[in-house]
Amino acid sequence: xxxxxxxxxxxxxxxxxxxxxxxxxxxxxxxxxxxxxxxxxxxxxxxxxxxxxxxxxxxxxxxxxxxxxxxxxxxxxxxxxxxxxxxxxxxxxxxxxxxxxxxxxxxxxxxxxxxxxxxxxxxxxxxxxxxxxxxxxxxxxxxxxxxxxxxxxxxxxxxxxxxxxxxxxxxxxxxxxxxxxxxxxxxxxxxxxxxxxxxxxxxxxxxxxxxxxxxxxxxxxxxxxxxxxxxxxxxxxxxxxxxxxxxxx
Length: 249
What we know:
CATH class of the domain at 5-176: Alpha Beta
Oligomer: single chain
């Protein structure tokens, strides 16, 4: 447990809460703490499943991109890969928005529970950037290649009701996704613990290998776009809450 991450265990379910409200932007330090917390739970024989949640208005509004560097991105993604390397199934409770890298964080989990008001946003192209956090693999895995391409190229927000229809989330709660996420995690935890670990490892083996490769490719693509005028315009427009004007430079 740290200032940014809180862990509590009840009935074989660990609740891991990110505590950087209201928007829960992440940086290298936060992802390092999160990965360490989740990996540590693998050594706890009492834990069979995990709920990943956040305090505040939004699940995660993404990475802090204003001062990011190519080397910083590489370090961030090393920690991000740790989230894919855990043994326990993870259910993400997505309140508010999961934006950019925050969407990548939600999709690193095995399941997502949202509300009708939740929003899932792959806004990278609207920032003059390239997707990261393994979304090249994880997004098409849940919504299909064609729809993933549409979401990445348009950067549009997907509300919770549509997210359920297209597979971007697995369950919809009328108000509090955390309670419904705990119910799903508790249902998983009632299964045989050795079976849970072995089934999950088999089902995620190909995805984890693909994510490892995708992260390297994504870093290279992001590094190439960092110095562009369009990336600067995208960040400035987002900060000013206006529509970006891209020039292709």
